[in-house]
TrEMBL record:
Residues 5-248 form the NAD-dependent epimerase/dehydratase domain. It holds the Pfam family Epimerase. It comes from the Bacteria. The keyword NAD applies. This is Nucleoside-diphosphate-sugar epimerase. Keywords: NAD. PANTHER family: EPIMERASE-RELATED.
Length: 324
């Protein structure tokens, strides 16, 4: 019998890629989101445009005992969305409602296996003050002190999912994503993350031009290409281990270094102008000891390899926009 999967957030970046991956594996897939994917037609067998903040919609979406449910739907974005403070109420309210409603609908429909995408933003700010030596091992999440309300909501929702596993018998899997990037993601709508934003900025200027970077550019991060994210997600989902676990790269770079890699791919040299802006923590990198121990796997693709696939796509978007 053909296996079935539900992908919540299937109109978004990671969700739309996940739908494609599940279809390649032979699943019947239902996608649900507030919107269809922006940059390519959905490959879902069934796609529902629905607001998962409404419990009635959640019950309608979960109308069968899906073999696998992936809950990626959330109100989120990059630093320009998450760290300004202007969107905190929406982030906490909208994402918490989605998770509360989806878990209840799955429980009542007797769905047994559900994946929840948490975030590296749950880690305490006090462990990420040194850009050269951030601490993000999974057990370091407590005592809790995320640097954003987005992180607090993610941490609350991790605990919510785990209570449904303990009290209601759901099989829950929780991953903490670290800065996932790739083609067909936000690149100019204010929700884009650093790789897409810098690809866009480099693509928009001529050789020798100038682009702006928030802060001094010495803040550090690691970035994971979307295909590696999906591989880790599916391995975790089908394992006998709950998590939470980091799914991210251990290749830490400064934002200035990220810009330099993109320039190399683009074949141009541009100047960096550092300006005030929302920054998040000073340093963050994935700690992959636990995922290697539990799953025998960790991401290995280099940042440059992923950017070499992403930059041409964003360049094409920039070029197409100029022609309008």
């Amino acid at each position: 019998m053909q296996k079935t999967a539900l992908v919540c957030g299937a109109g978004g970046f990671i969700g739309s890629h996940l739908v494609k991956r599940l279809k390649r594996e032979g699943f019947w897939v239902r996608g649900v989101d507030l919107k269809y994917p922006q940059f390519a037609p959905t490959e879902a067998d069934d796609f529902l445009v629905a607001d998962l903040r409404d419990p009635v919609n959640c019950r309608a979406v979960v109308d069968r005992g899906f073999d696998e449910v992936y809950q990626l739907a959330a109100d989120m974005g990059g630093a320009g969305f998450v760290f300004t403070g202007e969107n905190d109420a929406d982030i906490m309210h909208n994402s918490a409602l989605i998770n509360l409603n989806m878990l209840d609908a799955c429980y009542k429909r007797n769905v047994k296996r559900i994946f929840y995408s948490s975030s590296a933003c749950i880690y305490p700010e006090y462990n990420q003050l040194n850009p050269d030596d951030p601490k993000t091992s999974e057990e370091s999440a407590y005592p809790a002190a995320p640097d954003s309300e987005y992180g607090w909501e993610k941490l609350f929702s991790e605990r919510l999912y785990l209570t449904y596993q303990r009290n209601h018998g759901l099989t829950v899997r929780v991953a903490r994503y670290h800065n996932i990037f790739g083609p067909e993601g936000s690149w100019r709508d204010g929700r884009e993350k650093a790789p897409a934003a810098l690809c866009r900025k480099v693509a928009e200027v001529a050789d020798g031009g100038t682009i702006e970077i928030w802060g001094d550019g010495k803040q550090t991060r690691s970035f994971l290409y979307v295909d590696e994210c999906l591989e880790g997600t599916l391995r975790l989902m089908r394992s006998d281990w709950t998590g939470p676990v980091n799914i991210g790269s251990e290749e830490m770079v400064s934002i200035n270094q990220l810009a330099q890699i993109i320039m190399e791919i683009a074949g141009k040299q541009v100047n960096l102008k550092h300006i005030p802006g929302p920054l998040g923590v000073r340093g963050r990198n994935s700690d992959n000891h636990l995922i290697m121990q539990k799953l025998g796997w960790k991401p290995t693709e280099s940042l440059k390899t992923g950017l070499a696939k992403t930059y041409p796509w964003i360049q094409a978007q920039v070029d197409a926009l100029k022609k309008k």
